[in-house]
Amino acid sequence: MRKEIYFGLTILIAVVVGVFVLMPPPSEMTNGHLGLLMLGLIVVAIMLGFPTAFTLMGMGMIFAWLAFRSQNPNLAVQQTLDLMVQRAYSVMSNDVLISIPLFVFMGYLVERANLIEKLFKSLHLAMARVPGSLAVATVITCAVFATATGIVGAVVTLMGLLAMPAMLKAGYNTRLAAGAITAGGCLGILIPPSVLLIVYGATAGVSVVKLYAGAFFPGIMLAGLYVGYIVVVAKLNPQLAPPLAEADRHVPLPDYAEKITASFGNNVVRGLVAGVQGKVKTDAPSRTLMSQLAIALLPAIVFTAAMGLSYRMVTAPIEAVTTDAVQMGSGFSSDEAKSASGGLQEPPADDGGLKEPPPEGGLKEPPAAEAVKAPAPATQAAAAKPKASATEATTGERVPAPTAFWITLGLGTVALLAFYAIFNFVRLEIFKMLLGSFFPLAVLIMAVLGTIVFGLATPTEAAAMGSMGGLLLAAAYRRLNIGVVRESVYLTAKTSAMVCWLFVGSSIFSAAFALLGGQEIINKWVLSMDLTPVQFMLLAQAIIFLLGWPLEWTEIIVIFMPIFIPLLPHFNIDPLFFGLLVALNLQTAFLSPPVAMAAFYLKGVSPPHVTLNQIFLGMLPFMAIQVVALTLLYIFPGIGMWLPSVLYK
Amino acid sequence: MQKLFLFVDKVSTKIGHAFSWLILALTLLITWEVFSRYVLDHPHPWAFDVMIMMYGGMFMMAGAYTLSKNGHVRGDVLYGFFPPRLQAGLDLALYLLFFMPGVIALAWAGYGYASESWAIKEISNITSDGPPIYPFKTIIPLAGAMLLIQGCVEILRCIVCLQTGAWPRRADDVEEVDVEKLKDMVNVKDEDIAKLDALVVAQEGAHK
């Protein structure tokens, strides 16, 4: 114990001494050097463990005063005071940061709706045939839940309580189990709507909307790589992740389903139709059968509605049709309120696009947006916004639908038919379980993201709708009571105070840094190194990665991004792209031993013989995957930049 | 001494809690505004200002509350390893060096800033005929003063810790990751986890 302390302190002292040695003698010291001194000292001061917000504030104030004093000693105090209060006020009235408390609030509410148990169970049943099914289900559960809540600690703890026992009982390797939980739990940092991206957007002056659009596919890609890794490992070495026993996969069927299956075959639609018509004796009231049939037909209904709607959209005779996205925006702008909250009330309706086995209908084509908004069509038509009806009235001719539409329709229909061909009663039960757990969350996320990304709502509005959705979700699962709301509200206040005070401190600090001209020295220094953009990028990412060890992501972004961002134009790097890389990079920090928070949360709820070392070892392959993902994103910037470039030309 | 600490904590907490509810109000306000704008076609020009005020008021006034619960983010890589006395010593030094000057300056500057705003009865200039903004600006000195009081208590706490070698107790509050509550939520008991241990041990045995 003692040794570590002395080791740490020695390093800190060495840094301070080093900084002072490198400084020119006091007589030649310029303001720029003071700026660098300030930067060196802040790192040391943060490491001493004092609340960072106030370290930044105090140090910023002192150095701002020094900077002003060198210009005009008489005004220095007043100018410093003015600077501080103006900076504080600009954070208070920042219209980007306002979405942070709202998203945080949404996260706490969703967490307390207690969906995670059902979510995990239904997903692992749905994945039963995939190799390493439990671990795959863990990653997906984490991805969905972490995305909706954004609270790494809670997600890892909950999954440690739920998935860890399930995996250990099924004979999974402890390391693989630990790796899947910790890696999955950290996905919420990257996949929007994440607070990290808002903080980056506010610091770097990049549109949060674009960041969200950009981070979506890298996030999905990372989750996909995790899943792929697990499947491959489980396939190559089944000992690490043995397939589930028959008993664990068993889904109990209701009475009528057993009867229909016994006498009429396994197909749900045919069976239920026969049951309703009375060809099979089921003893179940026909109401039950009808409602089951309705549920079974949901994917088809949603698909038809989505395609019908998109047919109207793509053929609508609106002049100057540029892209589908723009058109959608104009068509839907009336209804964003409902698509967010309405989507929740009828979770089933929306997910045809997501559920169909081959996902092409759901993901690639523009209709994806309609799939998300599907619940709205009726209400939208009723609302009859002037824009839509006016255009219809004025011009009668419809544009012929593009080929892409027919291809989507064809593929979707084939997929749907294939889906119904294999749709048996066991799958119907699983489908119902998913309807109750996976789809509401997916709809909530998609509604929030969709409205933001397609420009229907500002992030603030969407975040508020998301919080409202969280309230409704908690209510729908009968978890909404004054205690839950009170806890969520208090936690939100604490978390937002933490982040936003950090902003107050850092904006005072970076103002002082700029006043001293530290930025110019760094710029000059970096430019004099004559780096190529690739070298610069590697250097920047390496520095951020290293900083990720001792510091939290909030600190890294608010303190160091203002230093990196002004350098980007020299190297022709898009701050948006840089932000995506940073977000992906900082995720790695959550998994890098020995400070990875996720590991400690998992350790807290694991059986005593699971050691921290095992957890760290389990995390390593996933960390390697993150580095692969970072490289992929760097080599193929399109993964991140394609969506924003399509949407916001 | 402990009584004084807990009393000040309680005041900060109560005020912080009271302002926390603004987040619920903010959610409802924006939801209503969105509904009103897109469905009823009746936007309110003051809505944006009010949103900002709710957000700003909430986090500023929760600053002291968060401090009283030790909730401000720290770089705790080393700090966590330090013995309490060293922690208290470092904290004390940095409270005096950074916190006090910074917060006093903020509160003082905020006082001047707000009083100018009161003097001209300033209104928001985001929309024409915006709502009055001077109460909002008053939040800066208020939040600063609360932080200052809470900071004094924290300094005293450091001194007590330096004397006794242990941190004085804080009152409980909701935790972000409350393991016991989470266990309750998903119905996992400690015995269940203990039972799993056998599996882990068995696995290790098999690998050796």
Main sheet record of chain A: none
Instruction: From the alpha carbons, calculate the radius of gyration of chain B and give it in angstroms.
Output: 24 Å
Query: Rough shape of chain A?
Result: elongated
Strand segment tally of chain A? 0
Round the Cα radius of gyration of chain A to an integer and report it.
27 Å
> Roughly what percent helix of chain B?
over 70%
Number of DSSP strand runs of chain B: 0
Strand content of chain A: under 5%
Biggest contact: A-B, 105 and 88 residues
Kindly report how far apart the N and C termini of chain A lie. 56 Å
- Multimerization status: heterodimer
Topology:
The complex is a heterodimer of chains A (649) and B (208).
Chain A lengths: L1 H21 L8 H17 L4 H20 L4 H17 L6 H14 L3 H11 L6 H17 L2 H18 L4 H12 L9 H10 L3 H29 L9 H4 L5 H10 L3 H10 L8 H30 L8 H9 L3 H10 L6 H4 L4 H4 L3 H7 L3 H7 L2 H9 L8 H19 L3 H29 L5 H18 L5 H35 L1 H11 L4 H15 L5 H12 L10 H17 L5 H9 L6 H24 L2 H10 L2
Chain B lengths: L1 H19 L1 H17 L8 H22 L7 H4 L4 H36 L14 H31 L14 H7 L4 H18 L1
Key features?
heterodimer; A: 649 residues; mainly alpha; 33 helices; 75% helix; 0% strand; elongated; B: 208 residues; 74% helix; flat
Describe the structure.
The complex is a heterodimer of chains A (649) and B (208). Chain A is elongated. Helix content of chain A is 75%, strand content 0%. About 12% of the residues of chain A have low confidence. Chain A is an all-alpha fold. Chain A starts with a helix and ends with a helix. With 208 residues, chain B is mainly alpha-helical. In chain B, helix 2 runs antiparallel to helix 3 and helix 5 runs antiparallel to helix 6. The longest helix of chain B has 36 residues. Classes of the chains: A mainly alpha (649), B mainly alpha (208). At the A-B interface, helix 1, helix 2, helix 3, helix 4 and helix 5 of A face helix 1, helix 2, helix 3, helix 4 and helix 5 of B.
